[in-house]
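Bug report (template v2)

What were you trying to do?
Predict the complex of my protein with ribulose-5-phosphate.

What happened?
Run completed; filing so the output is reviewed.

Input:
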Amino acid sequence: MKRAAARAALGYVVEGSLVGVGSGSTSRFFIEELAGMRGRIAGAVASSEDTRRRLENHGIKVFGLDEIAELPVYIDGADEITPAMHMIKGGGGALTREKIVSAVAGKFVCIVDATKVVDCLGRFPLPIEVIPMASAHVARELVRLGGAPVAREGFVTDNGNLILDVGGLRIADPVDLETRLNQIAGVVTNGLFARRPADVCLVGAAEGVRTMTAG
Ligand code: 5RP
């Protein structure tokens, strides 16, 4: 189902142009599919070191954001997505670079299997990237917000930071919570992608791939 969604995303890649590529298992399927059209794209922008290595191993040229003028489309998975196209991301720990690349892209195409579509975000623990010296402070602030933060053991992000996975949140207003979490000193990024939601979601299911858009 993940591969089917990934394959369908090829239809959103603009020939002769650049494509932003996410991280995680669904994005890895997308990279394999993208390899088949490497001669028809200008290259890619990677949202993690793992993605960069995989793209380069397939002979796809990878550009930094400072080297490009525009990025028509970004394609990435999600841990949860609602019909309003709000997402939780960061299960793979690449949320900060994912949020940066998606902010630059003209269109965000999310690729998921049907298990990721939810009515309300929060069953999946919300990943938060934290500057190491601030982790105890950020954890206390998260408890005050009703969350139950757990440090992701033995994990360091591509940016040299830590991840707190926050359980116990029922996220009724994702835009508001995304904004509030960003105000905690020491938070680099939180895994709510609601202020900039996906534009399209390709949902792989047993009966085929469904296209979901907001509204
Ligand atoms: C990585 C992510 C992934 O997109 C998310 O965790 C989904 O992963 P998968 O495609 O393996 O289910 O946000 O930081």
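What did the reviewer find?
The chain has six helices and 13 strands. The pocket of ribulose-5-phosphate is lined by residues 22-26, 76-79, 89-95, 98 (CB under 6 Å).
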